[in-house]
Write a structure and sequence with these properties.
The protein is α/β, with parallel strands linked by helices. The chain is built from 15 helices and seven strands. Bound molecules: zinc ion.
Length: 332
């Protein structure tokens, strides 16, 4: 899938294409931006473009090199993803961590010269690099072996070590335009535009999360979750709900749904989507009744996000305690 098949991101792709054409590619990149909008895909296409036989500064998608990359067997293209330890094995797991063993493997692979093309290392969910792994990587990020390119991909760049960030050229991926996104969701799932719009909003305009949201019936799950929260009005109910939540396997996802709901409420309290984003521009002082309400909705949104970060790896806070604190705050 060449660059032209990536949804949206015209500006981001222009920067990359221009760097390829002019031979001014940085040796380390950070592709930062919301989850599920095509950052990893773009990194992969850049890696393929560097190795494509067409030498067109894009991936043709058809040559041996492009096909080998697509099947995951290209020796020049290495992808690192978070893992969990299962006995002595490292098993891929999006909620796991990137371990020093994985980075050591990458470093030893980079020592060999590429046979034609260029070596490309893609580190997906780079914010999950364990500190030792990140530190082992610093020197190589600053000065990778000649010709190789390292691309860190992260939807939570604020969680990366500053020493990592400062060694990479950052490309900021923006959320997908609402219209294009809704069109793509409708095309891929066959749901109505209204349903697609809700899924898009609830998942922070992420294509892959929106598809997951629809595919796994989260519309219904989300409605139940929110109904439950709305009917939770006193302390003992809040603690009961907190306990239920803490036992859910999909707790992190449930928190994303709650965040989406609070964001929506804040936006509608502001009267318009752009009004909220541009509150300062409109001279919005927050002194009115509505202002206070928006402020507290936004505060609740960030409380949910803080809690999500606390219980996610690598911090693993106690889920029950974290949920109790959060629910007591939200129900207050
Ligand atoms: Zn090709």
């Amino acid at each position: 899938m060449p660059f032209k098949d990536i949804l949206g991101h015209e500006k981001e792709l222009r920067i990359i294409s221009e760097a390829l054409r002019s031979g001014r590619l940085a040796h380390s990149y950070l592709f930062a931006g919301p989850e599920g909008i095509g950052k990893r895909k773009t990194a992969f296409e850049l890696a393929r473009a560097l190795n494509c036989a067409s030498a067109s500064n894009d991936a043709c998608g058809e040559c041996t090199s492009c096909l080998r990359a697509a099947s995951g067997t290209h020796t020049n293209i290495v992808e690192v993803t978070p893992t969990v330890k299962d006995k002595d094995e490292l098993v891929p797991d999006p909620s796991g961590l990137i371990r020093i063993e994985q980075i050591r493997d990458v470093l030893s692979l980079l020592r060999y010269k590429a046979e034609g093309g260029r070596k490309a290392v893609i580190v997906d969910a780079a914010e999950r690099l364990m500190p030792q792994a990140a530190n082992a990587f610093l020197k190589t990020l600053e000065e990778p072996p000649a010709g190789s390119v390292i691309i860190l991909v992260s939807s939570r760049p604020a969680d990366l070590l500053p020493t990592i960030i400062s060694r990479c050229q950052r490309i900021a991926f923006r959320p997908l335009p609402e219209d294009a996104l809704i069109g793509a969701i409708v095309e891929k799932t066959g749901v109505s535009r209204e349903e697609a719009a809700v899924a898009a909003r609830m998942t922070g305009r992420s294509l892959s999360l929106a598809l997951k949201y629809i595919g796994e019936g989260h519309g219904e799950k989300g409605r139940e979750l929110i109904k439950r929260l709305q009917s939770t009005t006193d302390v003992s109910e809040a603690l009961k709900f907190a306990e239920e939540l803490s036992k859910r396997d999909d707790l992190l996802e449930a928190l994303e749904i709650l965040k989406g709901w609070y964001r929506d409420r804040a936006v509608s309290a502001a009267g318009a989507e752009n009004l909220l984003a541009n509150a300062a521009h409109y001279g919005y002082s927050g002194g009115s009744f509505e202002g206070r309400r928006i402020a507290s909705l936004v505060e609740d949104f960030f409380s949910i996000e803080d809690t999500r970060r606390m219980i996610a790896p690598p911090r693993y806070a106690n889920k029950l305690l974290a949920m109790e604190a959060l629910l007591l705050k939200l129900v207050d």
